[in-house]
Design brief:
Helix content: 25-40%
Strand order of the largest sheet: 2-1-3
Shape: elongated
Distance between the termini: 30 Å
Oligomer: single chain
Length: 129
Amino acid sequence: MAAKSIAYSDSGSGTYLLTKLFAQLGVADQVAGKSRKVRGPPSGEPVANVVARGEAEIGFQQVSELMHVAGVSFVGPIPAELQPGFSFAGVLTGTVREPKAADELVRFLASPEAAPVITKAGLLPPSAR
């Protein structure tokens, strides 16, 4: 609450903060005047860049888009019980050119062997969900 400026993404995560989370926490009115929506890529930039330049004291965006940006300190995710529960899924279309290879890739991404790389990228592997 002491922050003078807050930046959030113009994506679904930012919409969630603005329309749900801030209200759920009872702080919507207090943060409204000091919050700024940041237009993300491809025509804009990540929230972390705005924070790194000092244009916002706090930034909210997906972990994977914050944690590897120089000039910011990743302090942690929003508590799990307040997360909206976004997830990614992999599917194969009927027109895939290499169905066996594509199937192996999707299966690998869901495997315990892929978990360390997925975690390093700031995402949760399937076993952690």
